[in-house]
Amino acid sequence: MFAVKGLNVSTDKLKVETEHGSVLATPMPRTVAAGEEGAAPKPKPKKRKRAGRSNHTDVNLENVADLWEKVIEGGDNKARKAREDAKKEAHKAKKQKTEATENQPEGTTAAAEAAEAATLKPATTLKDKKKKIKADKKAAADATTTESKPSAPTPAPAPAAPKLTPLQAAMREKLISARFRHLNETLYTRPSKEAFSLFSDSPEMFTEYHEGFRRQVDVWPENPVNGYIADIKTRGKLRNAPRTRPGDGTSEGTKYPLPRDRNGLCTIADLGCGDAKLAEALVPLKRKLGIEVKSYDLQDGGKPELITRADIANLPLKEGSVDVAIFCLALMGTNWIDFVEEAYRVLRWKGELWVAEIKSRFVDPTKQGGKKGGPGNVVSHSVGNRRKPGAASGGPVGKKDKAKMKEEEEAEEEQQLAVHVDGVELRKQETDVTAFVEALRKRGFLLQREYGHGAVDMDNKMFVKMHFVKAVPAIKGKCADLKKEALKTTQTDAKGRPIKTPKFIDAADGEASFNENALLKPCVYKIR
């Protein structure tokens, strides 16, 4: 049925059409409204309701205003305010973007838009989650496929170096020793500037040299650097000097504390340090002993944290910045005197200089040229001096001559027994360091009184140890220039009369002139 405009028929007059005619339709039952008596229970809706929502909300006088704002006006005040703030922020961002786009060049506009789009895009959306799940499934499938496939064969390890036969090992040792001898001669017979340039161009030479040097040290009865390490450990723990008078023969240098600056720090410079054995032993104890170790050599030997590359004739140190300078078998090169003068420059006043050198290197050039006891004369115990007393005169040998010869032979046998049995060395064979000590005195170094007779230690059969102190002005060398200029200035007394200043004793004033660098012979081995 449908409504027709202008036609209005009541439902009571409607009839049902049949085969025999029309019959009045039975009246339709009246529907009972919900809530009335006899009303059927309302069927439960099949639509799934979301959690936290309720369709039945009772409206009364108390909540009608809140429901009006929430439903009709679009939410509570807080939500509305948040939406307004979001709109303002979006408008502000859009305005800033427009201004930035106008100021930026064309090339950077596209990149900025892409970055902004990535920023404004929600971090996690349903679409992104689905994509992520698909990507995870694909990665898992790929991993399963990779595991099922046979893994590629790993590369075989490098073959180990073939073991040398005894003959090959012996030949290798000889080659290393020969290389060491060659480099050793180069260092002793050239100035330090050339050696520094050579090792800078070929750093591997430094490693080769010290590999051979370590083999030489293995056969020594003692390494001087070990003694220096022990002395520093002993003296580093001391803070007060003993009450014994220095230089009286009873005091020992190891009972005196190390020299220190005003802050209590002792700076030690190991000049010509080699493989920095001194620094390796003392750096872990620097806080405990209150020391700082600085090592210098021609190359760092792969230890840049310990060794500084430098020519020790020209150190990168300030004047008076070191308390102890050490030359342990390091006075190599034809200009070793320059090393001593540089040590004087960097040492503080009363700073100490420790020197250890091989005994066979010390010579005295002033005794050469035929003087008594010098190398120009025949040695008293040589074969040429053992001629029979009568041979010089050409006459027969008498009883007195025979008795004298017998006495000399007996005395010589006693001396040899003293050398071999008692360990007493002949006075003639002792190392003479007098000229060396004098050369250092002219450069401002004196033997340390605290060590007494031990300031020159010759107990070791191979080495000499000497302890000096910077205690007088240098009268020779590069550090004496300013002193000489100061003495050349004219000084006057109270009456204005000039005072005669003392002159330094130079070679022209009666001293024999010679090359002081020749006081130490080069320690050269036979090159095989």
The percent of residues in helical segments reads 25-40%
Secondary-structure element series: EEHHHHHHHHEHHEEEHEHHHEEEHEE
Number of strands: 12
Note the main sheet.
8 strands, mixed
- Oligomeric state of the chains in view: single chain
Question: Which structural class fits the helix and strand makeup?
Answer: alpha/beta
Note the gap between the termini: 132 Å
- Calculate Rg over CA atoms: 52 Å
What does the overall shape look like?
Answer: elongated
- Mean pLDDT across every amino acid position: 74
Low-confidence stretches: 369-389, 420-424, 485-489, 504-512
Percent strand: 5-15%
Annotation field: number of helices: 15
Tell me what the structure shows.
Helix content is 38%, strand content 11%. The chain contains 15 helices and twelve strands. Strands 3, 4, 5, 6, 7, 8, 9 and 10 form an eight-stranded mixed β-sheet that branches. Helix 5 (166-188) crosses helix 7 (204-218). It is an alpha/beta fold and 528 residues long.
Set out the fold topology:
Layout: E1 15-17, E2 22-24, H1 64-72, H2 77-103, H3 106-120, H4 126-148, H5 166-188, H6 192-201, H7 204-218, H8 224-236, E3 266-271, H9 277-282, H10 286-289, E4 291-297, E5 307-309, E6 322-328, H11 336-346, E7 347-358, H12 389-393, H13 399-420, H14 434-442, E8 445-447, E9 456-457, E10 463-470, H15 481-488, E11 491-492, E12 498-499
Helix pairs in contact: 5-7
